[in-house]
């Protein structure tokens, strides 16, 4: 497999010129130049919660993994089973090292019996590629699996919010689901009939679209993979249909409100899924890297646990701030922000297990000031219905 492991400068998605022309503020992120906001983070969060927003997520990796040993290789690398995933479906899980630490979290789709699409995070694409190559050589002598990096050849656009399904339905000229639809009312198949974590294919203005019913905001929606040459046109059609362009700032607030982890914050190669409260995404039959460590943690617990924190006002806890109990450090904030949806400050933090019970009163050291916070269950926000 060929992938650019160490580019001399930040990469740019196929939509870079579109963002600049629209007045987006661009920032470096995960080795890419990305839009952090257009009209403002709060307005963009509200657009997604109340209507629909679109995000350029082309910086995320697209790795096609195929061949007679593809499912077997993935079973040794992923905490979610590839072998029992049906064609037409997708699954969220982790790529762990031998210590159970998370190299990356990922969604993978089964495209056919012997072909999968894996979506690694932007900054981890090179690390995942190297890890897969190493494991392929170790377990299969480099044979029976072909790994193709399609990141630069394609674009990826997320459409999220309560109006997302109507917008995508209205633009598709045709649609073919990859698996049986959630319901079949006897009319033409539409993306809105897809179950969560399934996929389909269709066309917008004759341009091919791969459609996964997935997202990272806590809202309903889709992620659309397109050819790079078609991405700007599809982006324009989505905005014309009413979707609001959104940047990384809104995406981070939305995922935090929904209690979703971000690699490098709630997940890392020194943090396990069990510590992060995500054991439901770790299969129990073992056979993958780190399985013994994770099984032990599942049975005996972990010294620290991920919790939610809430506090009034707008002076939000930030990553790496200390969490205190009676003046003693008992944890560290992993992510924090003001939540425009909840109109309060929220954060996720790793704390000593003794302080993880919901409703526990703690403090966060915010630039030398001990601010009162309360632990709470995650997520902070759930969409209606």
* CATH fold label of the largest domain: Gyrase A, domain 2
Radius of gyration: 21 Å
Strand arrangement within the widest β-sheet reads 11-12-13-14-10-4-15
Amino- and carboxy-terminal Cα gap: 43 Å
Proportion of β residues? Answer: 25-35%
Which class do the helix and strand fractions yield? alpha+beta
Low-confidence stretches: 1-6
Q: Give the helix level as a range of percent.
A: 10-25%
When the domains are counted, the total is: 3
Elements, N to C (H/E): EHEEHEEHEEEHEEHEEEEHEHHEEEEEE
Number of helices: 8
The CATH architecture assignment of the largest domain turns out to be 2-Layer Sandwich
What's the name of the CATH homologous superfamily of the largest domain? Probable tRNA modification gtpase trme, domain 1
Average pLDDT score:
95
Shape: globular
Number of strands: 21
What can you see in these coordinates?
- The structure is a single chain.
- With 385 residues, the chain is α+β, with helices and mostly antiparallel strands.
- The protein has helices spanning 16-21, 41-50, 70-77, 125-140, 164-171, 231-240, 248-257, 291-300, and strands at 11-12, 25-29, 32-37, 53-56, 63-66, 90-96, 102-112, 115-119, 146-149, 154-160, 174-177, 199-204, 207-212, 221-227, 244-246, 304-311, 322-325, 328-339, 344-352, 361-366, 369-376.
- The strands form four sheets. The chain has a seven-stranded mixed β-sheet with strand order 11-12-13-14-10-4-15.
- A hairpin with a 2-residue loop joins strand 12 (199-204) and strand 13 (207-212).
- Helix 2 crosses helix 7 (248-257).
